[in-house]
């Protein structure tokens, strides 16, 4: 469901039954993101999936996606059903890879699917792609949520993790993932710098 509050309440209920306590979700998300090049976005004034769907009516789009994306209700299948998007060629890609960005920039397809938390989407790297707004909520939000063993849960731990959690914005998550994925910095060092 796209109801964040309902999803969180359900998660807490399911967690309690398994001895897991969930704290406040971070603002950052890790769900599917649909991207186009900045040049394409600016040239065609496209910033949302609805606008891309309208464009596709006269110009069926070549699309880059994973094998499972092809028929999935939250990916290409959903783009067709929810947005009415028209597709031309479907190119199989490695999800959220620099190679996928490179091929997109070379205009081998118009749009592609990525993970919204992937480091290749970080604005700090001067990325030539933009994430389109999912204006019909095709993908529910997958927030990053602190989880602890209920036997170890304390008010102090909750307060500390909630403070840390609220600092994990989308930009921070992208920056950290860019450092570990693209720059190959050790995860421990990136985490230490973030908590610092």
Descriptive overview:
The protein is of the alpha/beta class and 196 residues long. It is built from eight helices and seven strands. The strands form two sheets. Strands 4-3-5-2-6 form a five-stranded mixed β-sheet. It has a two-stranded antiparallel sheet with strand order 1-7. The longest helix has 14 residues, at 4-17. It starts with a helix and ends with a helix. The relative contact order is 0.21.
Kindly summarize this structure in a few lines.
By secondary structure, the chain is of the alpha/beta class. Helices cover 40% and strands 16% of the residues.
Distance between the termini: 36 Å
Secondary-structure-derived class? alpha/beta
Range of helix content = 25-40%
**Helix-strand pattern:** HEEHHEHEHEEEHHH
Average of the residue pLDDT scores: 91
Number of H- or I-type helical stretches:
8
Task: Give the helices and strands, then pairings.
Blueprint: H1 4-17, E1 20-22, E2 32-37, H2 38-44, H3 49-56, E3 61-65, H4 76-83, E4 87-92, H5 98-105, E5 111-115, E6 129-131, E7 147-149, H6 155-166, H7 170-181, H8 187-195
Parallel strand pairs: 3-4, 3-5
Antiparallel strand pairs: 1-7, 2-5, 2-6
Keyphrases for this structure?
196 residues, alpha/beta, two-stranded antiparallel ribbon, 7 strands, 40% helix
